[in-house]
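Hey, I'm writing a tutorial for new members on how sequence and structure tokens pair up, and I'd like a real worked example in the thread rather than a made-up one. If someone can provide the structure for the chain below, I'll link this post from the tutorial.
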Amino acid sequence: MTQQEAESAPNCSVPATSAEVLLDGHRATRDRVARSILDHGPSSAADLASRLGLTTAAVRRHLDGLVAAGLVASREQRVYGSRGRGRPAKVFALTESGRDAFYQAYDQLAADALRWIAEASGGGEAGQEAVAAFARARFGRQGEKYLSALEQATADQRTEALAEALSADGYAATVRRVPSGSAGKAPAGAQLCQHHCPVAHIAEQFPQLCEAETEVFSQLLGTHVQRLATIAHGDGVCTTYVPAPGAAPSPRRGSGAAPNAGTTTEPPATSARRNPA
């Protein structure tokens, strides 16, 4: 069925076969097992069976499916103090992929909260400014964590220090030096590339998040920076141009790769604040 056909289909379903009912029930129970691990942390099959009212054998079958799908991993249970005889109990914990499966609900919660802030502040420009104030406060606190690392770096290594700090927070950041194009001249600057954005889905709806992050980068690096691309706007990598001390405020045209490759050197026609992509 095409997407158009799916959208035009009536909001009803045909009666399910007994096999389909069993399959849906299996999926629902497996989701309950994963949710219990998320809520309570690493758990043994016996713990899960007790919490969910299932047999241990049934829980193990669902755990086998979750492990095979890469959503759950097993490990020996940590024991504090003396351990009794016998093999240590095995516990099951969500993998990164398993946690990602639950992030959509949190994304919706964050979007609803920001929308409420905008509406409660009167909507319109006042509401947008309220969201922007929240974004500046949020990224400002994040920037405070990075400040000590940047203060210990030399002036020409501050961008790399910021990339390391961002990577520690899950942004998978790298730095690419941008040459000036003139032989014997110092580099024109650097591109700070973030290959992952934990708030990309929210930033699609609230660009104030990208704008606030850019402002914090500028404050931390002590220079004007320019956002060239963002994941939230459909680019492959969030790319920020950081000029070298004494360099021109914007990169040379046509000196780098095409957009969306994470190595863009030509700034967009619109300003970073109006359209951070």
